[in-house]
Design a protein that fits this description.
- The chain has 175 residues and is mainly beta.
- The chain is built from one helix and ten strands.
- The strands form two sheets. It has a five-stranded antiparallel β-sheet, with no helix packed on it. A five-stranded antiparallel β-sheet has the order 3-2-6-9-10, with helices on one face.
- It is globular and about 50 Å long.
Length: 175
């Protein structure tokens, strides 16, 4: 799926999952975004945004964060103000990683996982991670700036078997 019209402006990536059972360690999932420049669109990220950081100019940040999945609906939200990003950034990759505190844990082992990418009231993507159930991390979306400067959305569901730190380096690689 690709964006239509004049391009994207302010986009939200929303994440949900059910908390673990009372006698198990908490499940901790995170949304991660990596930005890339025109001269290295699949190389080293210019900067990475996750639960513990934000974009240097404030254009990408977490507005809601959970370490347990407790709450109603989407318990983690990242806002990307694509229309405010500096012109040197031409690509943003977004993914979700599961913290591996107590050994490998996959999306298929966590109940009610889901991600949504929305612009205003328009859903660009809704997914439950079932196609990457055996993975510990997944890329979900890619935003690219076209020649006119408009931002476009591309669904990018791909599974990875890595922890959050390694995943930040892998998720934006060429397909």
């Amino acid at each position: 799926m690709s964006g239509v019209g004049i391009g994207l402006g302010k986009v939200e990536v929303r994440l949900r999952w059910d908390p673990s059972h009372w006698d198990e360690p908490p499940h901790h999932l995170d949304i991660i975004a990596a930005t890339y420049s025109a001269d290295a669109p699949h190389g080293q990220p210019v900067y990475v945004v996750h639960f513990d950081s934000r974009a240097p100019d404030g254009t990408i940040n977490m507005t809601r964060h959970s370490q347990t999945g407790q709450g109603f609906g989407f318990v983690e939200v990242m806002v990307l103000e694509l229309d405010r990003l500096t012109s040197s950034i031409t690509r943003v990759a977004v993914g979700v990683a599961i913290h591996q505190r107590t050994g490998p844990q996959t999306f298929g082992e966590i109940t009610n996982t889901g991600v949504a990418v929305v612009e205003g009231h328009r859903e660009l993507l809704v997914d439950d991670f079932s196609q990457v159930a055996g993975s510990t991390a997944a890329s979900v979306a890619e935003f690219t700036r076209d020649a006119s400067g408009a931002w476009r959305f591309h669904e990018m569901i791909r599974g990875f078997d890595s922890d959050p730190e390694v995943f930040t380096a892998e998720m934006g690689n060429a397909r």
